Amino acid sequence: MENDADIRVSAGDLEKFSYCPLSWWLSEKFESRGEELDKGIREHDEIGRSLWEIDAEEKSASQSETMVFWYAVTATVIAIIGLELVFEDDFMHLSEIMGVVALIWVLAASFFLFKATRSTIKSKTLAYEKIVLIFAIVAVIIAVNAVGFVMQDDRLAQALEFAALLWLIAASYFLYRSLKSADIAQLLRNEFKIKGKIEYIDMDDSKVFISEKYGISGKPDYVMKLGDQQIPVEVKKGRTPQGPLFSHIVQIAAYCLLIEDATGIPPPYGVLRYPEQEHEIEYNEDMKKVLLEKVQDIRRARIKGEAHRNHKRPGKCRSCSRRDFCPEKIA
């Protein structure tokens, strides 16, 4: 006979078993790829792709802003060299232009400070890179003033200013890419109500969380990182219940336990997302106790080789995908 300590239980098993042990048992024996299951798989894959897009767009925004920085700095250096050649004998004009540049720096700093306070992206690096875009504005002012106040017919100076403008055009292109990527990422973050960094996404090649200590495995839809804490999130499609379903609570508790076992830091809660509501499910010792009791119930059922209906609700049977071959259905 199989030892119950050797029987691994998945978070999906816990969700099905908590809904109805008999439905779970029938899924073990007669699981089939019906239309509803295929639809669920497609919706799950769509969620994964959208979450990956957030990560990709934020990386693109960060890379583009880095390119803006270097193009802007290079353009600034070229433009200043050109100014020195143009105003070799007229330092007064050069001083006036630099005064205007200083004012632009102040205005630009104020603008990006405002943008930083409105941003929900928590990365300090990304916020810092936004501020360095001020260099692009500074370079534009220097180049424009240099062309407007040309005092000598110095072809080298003009060539340098032209080169500075070309570099600024490149910086503007990367700025456009950065802002566009950041907007797309922010829209997706708002749609999925994502806080902090996305630490994990359940895709085909994503790792499976496994706790050898408790014999539990699972893959949350995604995991958010808030400070040192990792918060599992499970997305449920279909109707929105009046409150979080017990079977879903047990499932999210399993993900919390898996993260606790993997990181050594227990999440304070897990998130259940329904189409119209979102619930933070507290993870504590009482919840952990309930979860481990369900794990033992599943192991006992597998060793015994049977399971039975745990409810008297006809509506629950009618919505069950296994009712057609259920021997204990009441509807």
Description:
The two termini are 36 Å apart. It is elongated and about 90 Å long. The chain folds into 2 domains: 4-51 and 195-325, Lambda Exonuclease, Chain A (Alpha-Beta Complex); 54-192. Helix 1 crosses helix 9. It has helices spanning 11-19, 21-30, 35-86, 91-118, 124-131, 134-148, 155-192, 246-263, 285-304, 314-318; strands at 9-10, 197-201, 209-211, 216-218, 222-226, 229-235, 269-273, 278-282. The chain has 331 residues and is an alpha/beta fold. The strands form 2 sheets. Strands 2-5-6-7-8 form a 5-stranded mixed β-sheet, with helices on both faces. The chain is built from 10 helices and 8 strands.
Number of helices: 10
Count of strand segments: 8
Low-confidence stretches: none
Which radius of gyration do the C-alpha atoms yield?
30 Å
The top-level CATH class of the largest domain is Alpha Beta
Largest sheet: 5 strands, mixed
- Helices and strands, in order, run as EHHHHHHHEEEEEHEEHH
CATH architecture assignment name of the largest domain: Alpha-Beta Complex
CATH fold field value of the largest domain: Lambda Exonuclease, Chain A
Shape: elongated
Query: Beta fraction of the residues?
Result: 5-15%
- Side-by-side strand order of the widest sheet: 2-5-6-7-8
